Each structure stands twice: as structure tokens, then as C-alpha cells.
Automatic annotation (TrEMBL):
Protein name (record): Aldolase
Record Gene3D superfamilies: Aldolase class I
Organism listed in the record: Enterobacter asburiae
Gene Ontology molecular functions: lyase activity
Record keyword Lyase present: yes
Gene: lsrF_1
Keywords for the protein's UniProt record, in alphabetical order: Lyase
Enzymatic class: lyase
EC number: 4.1.2.-
SUPFAM superfamilies, sorted: Aldolase
């Protein structure tokens, strides 16, 4: 969802509930930042989120 908006020309996103109700909110926030500010694609951001949430659970 975030990647699609940026890909279509949005300059940012507004995703409060999707971040804060995530099973790993810090990892989700970091992944969204990668898409918005570092031009990552959805696949790479999802993989990053998967790896980050493992560390967040520890």
C-alpha cells in the first residue's frame, strides 16, 4: 500500500493505525521509511520488516 502510493507520485504517507497496531510497530515504521525516503520496493521493504520484527521480539 505504501509503495504503491509513492510509486504513483505521492510525497509521503499517513498510516498511523497500520503502524501502531502492527505486531512490530518499530520495524514497520523503519520499513515505511525505507520506501518513502530511500525508494525501496515493496518486496525489499517487506523482507526488511520480517528481519527487523525478529529483532524487535527479542
Amino acid at each position: 500500500m505504501c509503495w504503491r502510493a509513492i510509486d504513483q507520485g505521492a510525497s509521503g504517507v499517513d498510516m498511523g493505525r497500520n503502524i501502531f497496531q502492527s505486531s512490530a510497530p518499530l520495524a514497520m515504521l523503519k520499513a515505511v521509511k525505507k520506501v518513502v525516503h530511500e525508494n525501496w520496493n515493496a518486496r525489499d521493504a517487506f523482507q526488511f520488516w520480517q528481519e527487523e520484527k525478529q529483532g524487535e521480539a527479542k
